Amino acid sequence: MIEFAVALGLFLAAHVVPTRPALRRRLAGTLGERVYLGLYSLLSILLLGWVIFAAIRAPYVELWPPAPWQAIVSLAMMPLSLALLGAAVVQPNPLSVATARGAFDTVRPGIVAVTRHPLLWGFALWGVAHLPPNGDVVSVVLFGAMTAFAGLGMWAVERRRRRELGPSRWAELAGATSVMPFAALANGRAGLPRDLRCWLGIAAGLGVYALLVLGGHVWLFGVDPLGRL
């Protein structure tokens, strides 16, 4: 339990401290923007892996018993989560957290037409999807914290980007997007993504989903999501 608490604390700290504007500018200026982003992404992946495997090794204290419907919820939500994550990784996005760099086209915004926070929504849905079938204390803390962190991240990033871009530039870039997934599409402010890069990212995310369901999840985490049906 102590290892899990330490790992989760370091993971959350690693996503709060470096986002401070002054510290980020100093690190990026010293290392270079690409090196900084590469090291930060690597650190995030390693810490997330540590958190997950520390949770697996932690004592099991049940809060609710397993049931088949819980696995169905997870299996139904994860395709959207991984599709958003896959597309977000390859999509430049000046409105939110992004790993890709490059020009942002307001006419062809890719996954940003679905939501301007695709990466954070992907993690939020990942957390929500894993809560029902994992009814123990450590899992509830882990997935609940990830969901809350992603939600708070949307609020914090939204405020920071609005301030950095200014009212007119923000209105220009965000006019055809929405915080809630599919809201801008539903009210006609945005059209379906037409960017090939976006659809390749979605396909990659769905491919990861298929690999996990067909044995990858058992190999990585020792749990078969289909075995609980």
Describe the structure.
The chain is built from 9 helices and no strands. With 229 residues, the chain is mainly α. The longest helix is centred in the middle third of the chain and has 29 residues, at 137-165. The model has no long low-confidence stretch (mean pLDDT 88).
Bulk shape: globular
Q: Could you give the distance between the termini?
A: 29 Å
Low-pLDDT runs of 5+ residues are none
Give the fraction of residues assigned to helices: 55-70%
How does the helix and strand content classify structurally?
Answer: mainly alpha
Number of DSSP E strands = 0
Q: State the order of secondary-structure elements, H for helix, E for strand.
A: HHHHHHHHH
**Count of helices?**
9
Q: Could you give the topology of this structure?
A:
Elements (H helix, E strand, L loop, with lengths): L1 H13 L6 H11 L1 H25 L10 H23 L27 H13 L6 H29 L1 H8 L8 H4 L9 H26 L8
Could you give a short description of this structure?
By secondary structure, the chain is mainly α. Helix content is 66%, strand content 0%. It has 9 helices and no strands.
Characteristic key phrases:
229 residues, mainly alpha, 2 domains, 0% strand, globular
